[in-house]
Amino acid sequence: MSSLRLQVLHLTGQSDPRSCGLSPVQHAFLDALPVADDARVRLNFPYDATLRPYRPVPLWLGSLRHLGLFVRIRLRRAAWARRNRSSVESQLRRAEQTLVLAGSIGLDLLGRLDLPRDLLDRLTVVAYGAVATRPPHCRTIRVASRTDHLARWWGCDVEVTSGHLAYLGSPELAALCAQVARDLAAEAA
């Protein structure tokens, strides 16, 4: 049995593969959501508290690492999934329902983990700036910006005003995530 009814977590690529700490912007976004403090997961993918804390990464280096990850998971998908699935599955099983805030390649990472159906049924994903050729088969709301030409290639359900790296600063995304969190909390009650 899950100990929490609802949890909210970020799932993005790793700009720094030695860390899964949240950035100050990610912490602030979680803090603004109408959920209990214990529902806020203070780690990012792959949810390993033994990794280093958050450190700012230059944009060029983070972009290069994301590109490398994007290629690596396509070349070694089975090995990559085996290496990461257990930590992600363990985190997701801590709650009856999970709101996943999937930024950029986060939706693709989630889909490539090949999670079991019973777990996918417990997820709601708000995928902002999603760059995903293999999204998971779960409830997903894709959010893209009118100016984010990269994410718009994959279509969207909701349009907001933002750049690819600035979605968490969008009042429209914040309002959407707050409403989804309220709806999930009501369902879990």
Structure overview:
Helix 2 (59-75) packs across helix 3 (77-92). This protein has a five-stranded parallel beta sheet with strand order 1-2-3-4-5, sandwiched between helices. It has a single domain (4-188), classed as Rossmann fold (3-Layer(aba) Sandwich). It is of the alpha/beta class. It is 40% helix and 17% strand. It is globular, with a radius of gyration of 15 Å.
Features:
189 residues, alpha/beta, Rossmann fold, five-stranded parallel sheet, globular
- The CATH topology comes to Rossmann fold
- Portion of residues in helices? 25-40%
Distance between the termini: 16 Å
Poorly predicted parts: none
Q: Total domains, how many?
A: 1
- The whole-number mean of residue pLDDT values reads 90
Q: Main β-sheet: number of strands, strand sense, barrel status?
A: 5 strands, parallel
- For the secondary structure, the number of strands is 5
Rg measurement, Å: 15 Å
Number of helical segments with 4 or more residues: 7
Oligomer class: single chain
Q: Strand order across the biggest sheet?
A: 1-2-3-4-5
**Principal-axes shape call:** globular
CATH architecture: 3-Layer(aba) Sandwich
